[in-house]
UniProtKB/TrEMBL annotation:
SMART domains: HTH_LUXR (SM00421), REC (SM00448). This is Response regulator transcription factor. Pfam families: GerE, Response_reg. PANTHER family: TRANSCRIPTIONAL REGULATORY PROTEIN NARL-RELATED, TWO-COMPONENT RESPONSE REGULATOR. The modification 4-aspartylphosphate is found at D57. InterPro entries: CheY-like_superfamily (IPR011006), NreC/VraR/RcsB-like_REC (IPR058245), Sig_transdc_resp-reg_receiver (IPR001789), Tscrpt_reg_LuxR_C (IPR000792), WalR-like (IPR039420), WH-like_DNA-bd_sf (IPR036388). The keyword Transcription applies. Residues 7-127 form the Response regulatory domain. It comes from Streptomyces halstedii. Residues 148-219 form the HTH luxR-type domain. SUPFAM superfamilies: CheY-like. Keywords: DNA-binding, Phosphoprotein, Transcription, Transcription regulation.
Length: 221
């Protein structure tokens, strides 16, 4: 991303929450290019404005079931360059898996009640807009249930732990601090994961994102 303001489309049916988020994001240097209260408004807004990232609630009018995340999957299929950050009170592991199934980054899923600071939310927006992944630990945990198989089986417990923290958006330095090990040790674990997953370095090296997506795809999500 360049130094320009991050362009955000905000889909949230609660007017009070939506207006508050517009104000907060504006104060944090983001440009809210449009807001939407329904899934059709979300789809139309993305088509018109092509934001860097769309913030999407799962349950939107008229039925308040899964309209928002269905629209997110459609956006993903039609305009994959638009990042998607699901921001909801609900965990829908199956839909999260569908969003991640395309094998590309630019996806986030955060739970409203677990975001402690606005700075965390804005950092996640930037990460998603840049093609990264930002997943709440609870979402990751639910997606992991159902049995592990394939390449994931080859990971050691520590490699598994490191990769799960990578899925939550932690850097090597942050992982080292959380696990109380050296950053060099984390680098070795990450390199081992890349090797076991068959991820070779490229000139546009996004192996962290690919490793996370492989992990989620093969872990019964």
């Amino acid at each position: 991303m360049t130094d320009r303001r991050l362009r955000v489309l905000l889909a949230e049916d609660s007017v009070v929450l939506r207006d508050g988020m517009v104000e907060l994001l504006g104060a944090r240097g983001c440009e809210v290019v449009a807001t939407a209260g329904t899934a059709p408004e979300l789809l139309a807004g993305v088509a018109e404005h092509r934001p860097d990232v769309a913030v999407v609630d799962i349950r939107m009018p008229p039925t308040h079931t899964d309209e928002g995340i269905r629209a997110a999957v459609e956006i993903r299929a039609k305009t994959p360059e638009v990042g998607i950050l699901v921001f909801s009170q609900h965990v829908e592991a199956a839909w999260a898996s569908r969003l991640l199934a395309g094998g590309a980054g630019g996806i986030g899923y955060l739970l409203k009640e677990r975001v402690a600071r606005t700075s965390e939310f804005v950092a996640a927006l930037h990460r998603v807009a840049e093609g990264g992944v930002a997943l709440d630990p609870e979402v990751v945990t639910l997606m992991m249930r159902g049995g592990r198989r394939s390449r994931v089986d080859t990971l050691t417990p520590r490699e598994h732990e490191v990769l799960e923290l990578m899925a939550q958006g932690h850097s090597n330095r942050s992982i080292a601090a959380l696990l109380v090990v050296s950053e060099r040790a984390v680098e070795k674990h990450v390199a081992a994961v890349f090797t076991k997953f068959g991820l070779r370095a490229t000139h546009t090296d996004n192996r962290r994102v690919k490793a996370v997506l492989t992990y989620l795809a093969e872990s019964g999500g």
